Amino acid sequence: MSANGDTHDHDHGDDAAAYVLGALGPREAAEYLRHVTVCPRCREELAALAPVADALASAVPQVPVPPDLRRRVTRAAEEQPHQEAKAVDRPRRRSSRFPKAGIALAAGVAAAGVALVLALVAPRPGHETSRVVSARVMGSPGTAQLRISHNHAELVVSHLPPPPAGRIYEVWLRHGSTAPAPTSALFGVTTGGAATVDVPGGLRGVSQVLVTQEPAGGSRVSTHRPVIVASLT
Predict the structure, then answer these.
(1) How far apart are CA 119 and CA 128, in angstroms?
(2) In whole angstroms, what is the distance from residue 7 CA to residue 144 CA?
(3) Collapsing DSSP states into helix, strand and coil, what is residue 217?
(4) Direct distance between the N- and C-terminal alpha carbons of the chain, in angstroms, rounded to an integer
(5) What is the C-alpha separation between 147 and 152, in angstroms, rounded?
(6) What is the DSSP letter of 50?
(7) Which residue ranges form the domains of the chain, and what is each CATH number?
(8) Do 212 and 225 form a contact (C-beta atoms < 8 A)?
(9) What residues pair up with 187 in beta bridges, in sequence order?
């Protein structure tokens, strides 16, 4: 038993970093996962390192990929299974597991791989797929944000006071500098002031998403100043 009470064999001690970075082969990865099920120490190491690997995706700038690079990566991916098939019968050696220098090299290679994959799937400029827009909330301590994905939006509010009796919140869309147009989105909030509202229609040409308090049933012409404004330009 070790000094900290861990009775498990720790020749897997360096595998957490290699696993989250995708540097283990299929057989080693399977063996490591079996070990993790019975080793609390390795589970803790894996839980600590997993968010670091997840953060790599958001840390890499998204840029278009040159066509020749895309072809080279595709060709390498097609050749990889043949290389692994040749290596499957080689004797397995686990003398030093992953020494620190090896882990650093694996991390660098994996990070470069993540960057390359992200570049391949990254949207080109002008073809944004998702983002979050923070909205201004007037006259209350509430907060609101617009979650946009593939030209569609969802409004998420919290700590927003309920509208007065006989009134309701209504969503409006402004195109350019024109007057806001009403939508079919009418909503109230929970006792905690929360609501998630689907914004009807697409966002092409929309400059602002607004929310006002209107008579129950909604209005075709806004009767109050906006309480929420999310600007898209």
Answers:
(1) 14
(2) 51
(3) coil
(4) 62
(5) 8
(6) H
(7) 15-121 (no CATH), 130-231 (2.60.40)
(8) yes
(9) 169
